[in-house]
Design goal:
Layout (H helix, E strand, L loop, with lengths): L3 E12 L2 E12 L3 E5 L6 H8 L7 E6 L2 E2 L5 H7 L1 E4 L11 H9 L5 H6 L4 H13 L15 H14 L4 E5 L7 H15 L3 E5 L3 H7 L2 E6 L2 E7 H6 L1 H8 L8
Parallel strand pairs: 3-8, 3-9, 6-7, 7-8
Antiparallel strand pairs: 1-2, 1-4, 4-5, 9-10
Bound molecules: adenosine-5'-diphosphate (ADP) and magnesium ion.
Magnesium ion (MG) binds next to helix 1.
Length: about 250
């Protein structure tokens, strides 16, 4: 067995002549928390689209736990153990956080049987534990529509974890959040990173500094640089990509 959870080789995605990903190579060890940054249009979302089977690569391959993801459907890939959280929360607003988590824990059952039947003891414990982990125990039984944006984001991260994926993909979790909510989401991801492999895509540099260990910088569909946050911030190519020009090259 491979200790790499993800191995990506020469991945190219060609949209009518435009290469959103261009010979991208990337590997990640099991248990890692990896942050991916890059300017708008760098290919970050497309990268997640390929890993989750939403977009088929034109060239190259993606291996998850040693298995080639080519030609597998989104559903099959999700069952292999890759869970994705999209940018906007997708919780059931009329249901409570507890009910939302119940549903995620019982994806194979239907909505009504989950809501109408009493959960068994171990399931109760799982949902209670998840509520605790995402910090929503005090709000477990109010409709989710009354939660703040940050609380909804945490709830949805909890719903993702409830499905017990081996790899969590999280796209821009703190966009539009207050500083305090951003910190809460960061702390939640750090807690989850103790027992999960996680890829976080993010723009907010303050947030990246809070959670980052290893950072991968994407640019024009390929990896521009990889290193610690400190190394990334000092790297000349990265600075040029983010600021447009090297700082001492203006006069
Ligand atoms: P990021 O998430 O880093 O901002 P994306 O992966 O969304 O970047 O997009 C990378 C590039 O690919 C962008 O220039 C975008 O316009 C283009 N792109 C994304 N999806 C499509 C598509 N379905 N058809 C054509 N071009 C696309
Ligand atoms: Mg994007």
């Amino acid at each position: 067995m491979s200790d790499k959870i993800l191995e990506i080789e020469n991945l190219t995605v060609n949209f009518d002549g435009f290469k959103a990903l261009n010979q991208l190579n990337f590997t990640m060890a099991t248990g890692e928390l990896r942050v991916i940054i890059g300017p708008n249009g760098a290919g970050k979302t497309t990268f997640l689209d390929v890993i989750t089977g939403k977009v088929q690569p034109t060239e190259g391959q993606a291996l998850f736990k040693g298995k080639n993801l080519r030609s597998r459907s989104e559903h099959q890939i999700s069952r292999l153990g890759i869970g994705r959280k999209f940018q906007t929360p997708r919780v059931y607003l009329k249901l409570t956080p507890r009910e939302n988590l119940d549903l995620s824990c019982n994806r194979h059952k239907n909505v009504f049987s989950t809501l109408l039947s009493r959960p068994s003891k171990p399931e109760q414990r799982t949902v209670a534990g998840l509520l605790e982990t995402v910090g929503l125990t005090p709000k477990a039984d109010i409709p989710a529509e009354l939660l703040s944006h940050g609380e909804k984001q945490r709830l949805e991260i909890g719903m993702l974890v409830a499905q017990a994926p081996d790899l969590l993909l999280v796209d821009e979790p703190v966009a539009g959040l207050t500083d305090e909510e951003t910190q809460n989401v960061g702390n939640l991801l750090l807690t989850l990173a103790e027992s999960h492999s996680i890829i976080v895509i993010e723009h907010d540099m303050e947030f990246v500094r809070q959670i980052a260990r290893q950072v991968t910088v994407l640019h024009q569909g390929a990896v521009l640089y990889e290193g610690s946050m400190e190394e990334v911030q000092q790297n000349r190519q990265v600075i040029e990509v983010y600021l447009g020009q090297p700082e001492d090259n203006n006069g």
